[in-house]
Amino acid sequence: MSMSDGWNASTPWLDTGDNAWQLTTATFVGLQSVPGLMVFYAGIVKKKWAVNSAFMAFYAFAAVLISWVCWAYEMSFGQQWAPFLGKPGAVSTLSIRGALGQAIIPASNTDLAFPMATMAFFQVVFAAITLVLIAGSFIGRMNFTAWMIFVPLWLTFSYTVNCFSLWGGGWLFQMGVLDYSGGYVIHLAAGSAAFSGAWVIGPRLQQDRDDFEPNNIPLMLTGAGILWLGWNGFNGGDPFNAGADAAVAVLNTNVATAASLITWMIMDIIYFKKPSIIGACQGMITGLVVITPGAGLVPGWGAIVMGIASGSIPWISMNIMGKTKWFMQVDDALGVFHTHAVAGLLGGLLTGIFATTEGCLSFAAISTGGGITGNWHQLYLQLIGGLFVIAVNVVVTPILLFGIGFVVPLRLSEEDLLIGDAACHGEDAYAFYHDGAKEIDLSRTASSGSLLNGAGQVPPEITALKG
């Protein structure tokens, strides 16, 4: 390859600053999944599920990467094959020429100032975190082999449809539906898929539903912190350049999140008489989610209003409606429906109200703004977009799971459900005795002195314990 081929830093279309920004933001988004949600899940679940829940996230990230470059990227951002789907095929980055070439989105006639390799990596971390979020609803009972099959299938038959329709130049994009950074494509999709999938898989053991205390709150908080700051890449990277709109998106993201966290905490104090750190984390998540569809489109005061709404409406959904008999029939382990589906739809609708003309122009959106600019039709478009995403997931997700169930069991056996990580993976999260172990290696624990009593002996109540 010669310098005249144009694949070098002096290439006219290449902006090295924008390229650096996109690679950086992509890495921030990737960190939200590994290690962010891995350690968040590992800390917030009962300790016998710490390894399994983290491993579901770890595997999903890897499986999506391979599926993405082999066929799913083109279905999401390639040549239009149907109004809601791109033509399947291997992404051009599998060849060095394609990887070095300019990134384009053909269905929307968009040319970008960085290579295809950057575009493929930036988009795959969004696809991966969507599957990782779904895992939060299925943990504590799903067969890991079934999860291994589910991940590439759901990516192929659900994620690509929503992604192409809204981001890849499909019919919702052409209508003017706004989804700045994934409130619909990622969060509403994950939340609706999580809820419908949890219904198919069935609930955890009743004893796990009754007693599912977090095993490590500081670890959970570490994951939450990575999520919060990682969201700067999530929303800051979607203008596809390091311009002013990216700065607005980052600031609005943090303002809305802070407002949501504080509102959720106040709601906890009013209703439960004390603030909860777990509740504050839920409010943080709903704030991040609600601002995502409009991060660079709304004014700062609109971001605060959206944060207040996400700290109260999903709170009511989770703590009032979620405790009703109908909702309790579906075991959504970590409340993904409330924190992502409810908050994602809320954010999309509020974007239809608070989107500004200036924000839409900066983002090169088809829309001229939302209700505050006099364009109340945008709210209707946002509703259509949200209903489409919900419909895709409540249909596709159960079909996939029922199909997988014919091949492998969707659920772990009752014995494995009692034991947890040690049965699923032969590994335990911590190097001390815990509930869920089938047996205790008394010779090892006694030699280390970890279980010895004052007389230097293993207490009889420990000797008698199993599982």
From TrEMBL:
GO terms for cellular component: plasma membrane. It is a multi-pass membrane protein. Gene3D superfamilies: Ammonium transporter AmtB like domains. One of its GO terms (molecular function) is ammonium channel activity. It is found in: Cell membrane; Membrane. The chain crosses the membrane at residues 20-42, 54-74, 120-139, 146-172, 184-205, 217-234, 246-265, 342-367, 379-408. Keywords: Ammonia transport, Membrane, Transmembrane, Transmembrane helix, Transport. Residues 20-430 form the Ammonium transporter AmtB-like domain. Pfam families: Ammonium_transp. InterPro entries: Ammonium/urea_transptr, Ammonium_transpt, Ammonium_transpt_CS, NH4_transpt_AmtB-like_dom, RhesusRHD. It comes from the Eukaryota. Belongs to the ammonia transporter channel (TC 1.A.11.2) family. NCBIfam families: amt. PANTHER family: AMMONIUM TRANSPORTER MEP2. This is Ammonium transporter. It comes from Physocladia obscura.
